[in-house]
Amino acid sequence: MKEREYILELYELYNKLLTEREKTYFEDYYFEDLSLQEIADNNNVSKSYVGKFINIIINKLNKFEESLRINYKNKRIRELIKDLDKELVSKIEDLL
């Protein structure tokens, strides 16, 4: 479950860097909870193609994070500010 949450965090940060087709496949699989076969049927491709394509998208998201480290930095900032004044924390989190 943790890996899924991590992938969804990355998607939230980097989805604008994906193509429309990549977003559609990802969202169908992770948000609409469609099976690989259902996605394949909807897009006239094979089930194995969908599985490979989902993995390519996940690898892409991981590479974005590896290069940009936005998710890591956001988490680190949240750790550092947790003991600050609540109003200030709220303002900082709005920026994240």
Describe this entry's structure for a reader.
This protein has 96 residues and is an all-alpha fold. The protein is 79% helix and 0% strand. The chain has helices at 2-14, 20-30, 36-43, 47-68, 70-81, 86-95. Helix 2 (20-30) packs across helix 4 and helix 3 packs across helix 4 (47-68).
- So how many helices? 6
Topology as H/E string? HHHHHH
> For the record, what is the CATH homologous superfamily label of the domain at 2-68?
Winged helix-like DNA-binding domain superfamily/Winged helix DNA-binding domain
* CATH class type of the domain at 2-68: Mainly Alpha
Rounded mean pLDDT is 94
Question: What amount of the residues lies in strands?
Answer: under 5%
Rg calc: 17 Å
- The percentage helix is over 70%
Count of β-strands: 0
Shape: elongated
Low-confidence stretches: none
Keywords, separated by commas or semicolons:
96 residues, mainly alpha, 6 helices
What's this model, at a glance?
By secondary structure, the chain is mainly alpha-helical. It has six helices and no strands.
